[in-house]
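quick q for whoever's on today - can somebody do inverse folding on this one?? i tried earlier but teh output was garbage lol. tokens:
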């Protein structure tokens, strides 16, 4: 770790310990957005990146201040723990169990740590909005630098080390990457954050405009088709808000459409990935062929993953002679820990979508602004789910996926507890004998407006 990165990390850690709870994620996200993933401290086989150091500092803060998850653990929390345990157990099926265990524990520490801190510091919808407004302002310098990089071909974040000064170029187009390890990951962060920052448009318009403009700039500057498609998916999911009561039908239509395409096409329908090229030089065919190869070689990785995938594709990767480029996050989970780890990751995503629906139904119709914000969380999760088909998160970009999942879980826990409390406190409906003893003006059918609000508590669910 160079002196500049060390100074930034120490100041961020100090701020994390001292700021109020609602601002606790500011120094952590600053470390994610402004320090490259290559910066860290290595102790033997252990690699303490800046993100890991700040996560540890966050745990120290939470323990010392008595901060905890309000309302206790919910189902998604337990599934996240099961996912981490499955990753650890899968290390037994690899050639170097101890090395595999260290890597998987580091992975769970990263993902589970961010998720747990969000669950601890984000306790209601307002906290979630505040967290994402912080994110909106932090992305502005990143977007500005990436736009400058797009124009000059030089990455200013190289002063921190871990990224090259010279930007990547494909087919004559500069691909900006900012502090991230690849232009696609940089653009992906902008794409998946876009619906999050549009989610509070009505209440905090300037923050939403600033944040969304930054996200679109990052998507443009990266010069990659994948993030552009992810941004389209994110915006499309936001527009489905008006059809939210028909989502079951729309989901079945999507499934049947895919099956229909699979029946009429000469190759599996996922080869449509090769048809999308919005920025030029797309490797969509590679991603489709990788899925096909993963299915063909299922017997090699289904139980606990595999240490060798080089024969799956015509090309390998420079950083590991045993592997091909696994540009699919679901398949990457399979390579790490087999079908159990892949399925648990998918279950985490499915529960996240389920929580979005449950939260919206639990929030009264009179609080439609909160409902729209929760829908925006779901749109971001959808963009992540779609992105995982063509991208594997291998740098600090993973933070934004688990930030979204943690926010969804916290909001769901809060609205469920609030709904239960209100239903418990709501006065019971009067019996027939009690009604007859009421003054005529207070009986149902008389003075209707008053009796509706009084006898039928506003805490009850609104009909849909």
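ok took a stab at it. sequence:
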């Amino acid at each position: 770790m160079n002196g500049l990165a060390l100074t930034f990390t120490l100041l961020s850690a100090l701020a994390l310990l001292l700021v109020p709870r609602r601002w606790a994620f500011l120094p952590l996200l600053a470390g994610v957005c402004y320090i490259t993933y290559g910066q860290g401290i290595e102790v033997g086989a252990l690699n303490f990146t800046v993100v890991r150091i700040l996560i540890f500092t966050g745990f120290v803060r939470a323990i010392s201040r008595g901060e905890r998850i309000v309302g206790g653990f919910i189902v998604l929390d337990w599934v996240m723990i099961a996912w981490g345990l499955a990753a650890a157990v899968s290390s037994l099926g690899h050639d170097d169990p101890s090395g595999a265990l260290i890597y998987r524990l580091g992975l769970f520490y990263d993902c589970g740590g961010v998720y747990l801190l969000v669950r601890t510091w984000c306790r209601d919808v307002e906290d979630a909005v505040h967290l994402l407004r912080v994110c909106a302002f932090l992305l502005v310098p990143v977007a500005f630098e990436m736009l400058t990089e797009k124009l000059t071909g030089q990455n200013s974040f190289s002063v921190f080390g871990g990224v090259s000064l010279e930007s990547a170029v494909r087919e004559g187009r500069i691909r900006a990457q900012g502090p991230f390890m690849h232009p696609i990951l940089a653009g992906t962060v902008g794409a998946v954050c876009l619906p999050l920052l549009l989610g509070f448009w009505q209440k905090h318009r300037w923050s939403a405009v600033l944040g969304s403009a930054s996200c679109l700039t990052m998507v443009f500057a990266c010069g990659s088709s994948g993030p552009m498609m992810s941004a389209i998916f994110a915006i499309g999911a936001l527009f489905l808000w008006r059809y939210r009561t028909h989502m079951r039908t729309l989901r079945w239509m999507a499934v049947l459409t895919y099956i229909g395409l699979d029946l009429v096409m000469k190759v599996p329908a996922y080869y449509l990935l090769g048809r999308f090229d919005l920025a030029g030089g797309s490797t969509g065919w590679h991603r489709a062929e990788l899925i096909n190869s993963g299915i063909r070689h299922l017997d090699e990785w289904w139980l606990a993953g595999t240490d060798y995938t080089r024969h799956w594709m015509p090309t390998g990767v420079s950083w590991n002679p045993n592997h091909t480029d696994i540009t699919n996050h679901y398949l990457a989970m399979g390579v790490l820990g087999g079908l159990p780890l892949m399925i648990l990751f998918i279950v985490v995503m499915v529960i996240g979508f389920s929580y979005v629906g449950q939260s919206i139904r639990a929030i009264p119709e009179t609080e439609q602004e909160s409902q729209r914000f929760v829908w925006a969380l779901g749109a971001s999760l959808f963009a992540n789910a779609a992105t995982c088909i063509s991208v594997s998160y291998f740098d600090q970009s993973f933070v934004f996926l688990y930030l979204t999942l943690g926010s969804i879980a916290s909001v769901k826990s809060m609205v469920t507890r609030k709904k239960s409390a209100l239903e418990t406190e709501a006065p019971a409906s009067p019996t027939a004998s009690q009604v007859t003893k009421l003054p005529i003006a207070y009986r149902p059918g008389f003075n209707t407006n008053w009796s509706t609000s009084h006898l039928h508590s506003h805490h009850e669910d609104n009909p849909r």
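fwiw DSSP finds 17 helices and four strands in the chain. also Strands lie at 40-43, 46-49, 168-170, 173-175. so keep that in mind when u check it
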